[in-house]
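Researcher: We're reviewing a set of sequences before deciding which ones to prioritize for further study. For each one, I'd like a predicted 3D structure that I can look through quickly. This is Error-prone DNA polymerase. If possible, include the structure in token form so it fits the rest of the review sheet.
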Amino acid sequence: MQILISSPAAWPRPPSCLPADRLGAPPNGARVTVAGLVILRQRPGTAKGVIFITLEDETGVVNVIVWRALYERFRRAVISGRMLRVTGRLQRETGVTHVIAEEIEDVSDLLDRLLSPDTPRGAGPGVSGSAETVREGS
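Model: Here's the predicted structure for Error-prone DNA polymerase, in token form for your review sheet.
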């Protein structure tokens, strides 16, 4: 089941994405698409190659888990993307919600539209930047 939510035309939000504050609506295991600014990337040495990404949209944060095999397939987007669109399975455990990534797309080019002189002031969210941390482990 994929949930599609339309968004305001004034903000160049990737199509068909579920906002962070709506992740409680679909059932556990549902296939969803989320998008947001990358605010954290972690690759702990104890995680056996798993990468944890935190995305932020205008409604909250989304925790994304990227397994090693998927990381190899979408390496460029995972490493360099400032804004990502992730499709995967919703997982809820002990009160924590994650999206287990199946597809990852770098949509950072949408951020450039926010700075375009053609974009009316106030049409987009206040993007003040993001703190990115990459911790390489063995």
